[in-house]
Automatic annotation (TrEMBL):
GO terms for molecular function: hydroxymethylglutaryl-CoA reductase (NADH) activity. It comes from Olleya sediminilitoris. Keywords: NAD, Oxidoreductase. It catalyses: (R)-mevalonate + 2 NAD(+) + CoA = (3S)-3-hydroxy-3-methylglutaryl-CoA + 2 NADH + 2 H(+). Its EC number is 1.1.1.88. It comes from the Bacteria. This is 3-hydroxy-3-methylglutaryl coenzyme A reductase. Pathway: Metabolic intermediate metabolism; (R)-mevalonate degradation; (S)-3-hydroxy-3-methylglutaryl-CoA from (R)-mevalonate: step 1/1. PROSITE patterns: HMG_COA_REDUCTASE_4. Belongs to the HMG-CoA reductase family.
Amino acid sequence: MSVLVSGFSKLSKTEKIDWLIKNHLSDQKNAKDILTQYWNSDQKLQQLHDEFIENTVSNYYLPLGVAPNFVINDKIYTIPMTIEESSVVAAASKAAKFWQTRGGFKTKVIATNKIGQVHFTYPGAFSDLEDFFKNVKSKLILDAKPITKNMEKRGGGILDIQLKNKTKALDNYYQLHATFETLDAMGANFINSCLEQFAKTFKAEAEAMLPMPVTVIMSILSNYVPECLVRAEVSCNVEDLAEKDIDPNTFAETFVQAVKIAEIEPYRAVTHNKGIMNGIDAVVLATGNDFRAVEAGIHAYAAKDGQYSSLTHAKIENGIFTFWMEIPLALGTVGGLTSLHPLVKLALQILDQPNSKQLMQIVAVAGLAQNFAALRSLTTTGIQEGHMKMHLMNILNQFNATENEKTQIIEHFKTNIVTHSAVVEAIENIRQ
Ligand code: MEV
């Protein structure tokens, strides 16, 4: 049973672990060893990780893999991916290789505007508020200068502030709806600092100039960034889709049909897009970006027309197969973890130090490639064949298979179908 505790964050790391063991892990005799075996022997590196969050007790490892052979706008990339799901990196690599000989991926950044809002209420007349806003707008921008001046020197900053009347949906509710260009920074801190300054100025000026009080509810960026948009595409002659025993025309038509199903059927769309996010999240994580923000924004975009739908689209026109995706992505290549986490720095180096626009394109390609690989399997062999082959090692590790057992079993499953029970049976047979 859980117990309440006060002052937990003030305890030392060892005291926190002792508390955990006493209250939650008393039955687990090697709990301390499990937690401490993931500590880094380099004290400075460990301290860096300890200080990312509060109450750190250990490090949680995820594999960092790489998917080579991505050709994006005629440049070759090896893409770093952080993910636990066995088949994702293999699928990305396979899709990269497939498209490498068929013209590669083509990408384009459509826009890079980010959004933040000051949410407030005003019980008086809208016309008063409108006049007041017209007068105060330049002061809002001026008072934020100490925050924006460096960003402006580099070519970014506040693009616009609008007053939005939301009283039809919620009594007395208005917004200062601001757009920003944050260049290579993801921009959350920059935007939030600007918004809090807008709110301060707005409220102070309103007190002197408006007959009724303005109440600021909150000031926060939006993770919905439909104006920070990137497009990724692959295309080739239908005949060029041929591979081994796959008939290119049937493949192209079935593939397009599979995408159309995801376009109109939300149950399928969610799984379809989940597969896309396998690729996107893995690169977003490896490059130290905020995958929750990316997830939230992309799923909202998938529902922008009122029904949750596929992020990707496909067509066959005049014998040419085209498969593409447009997604919103707010990413940073400076600031945050990108300048702190040694593996993130390395991941960005592997990508040849992209700026945020280049990273948007790489991440979109990882998503499109992942969807291509998933649909290719789903519409031909089925997903389980490849998936279970990759999952085989996890099952073997679950049963503490020795190297010798692993070699024998992997050989056996080169020609047999992998299922959990078949693997267990194979282990038992060897061990008898
Ligand atoms: C599994 O992680 C992802 C898939 O389910 C995606 C899809 O169905 O398109 C294979």
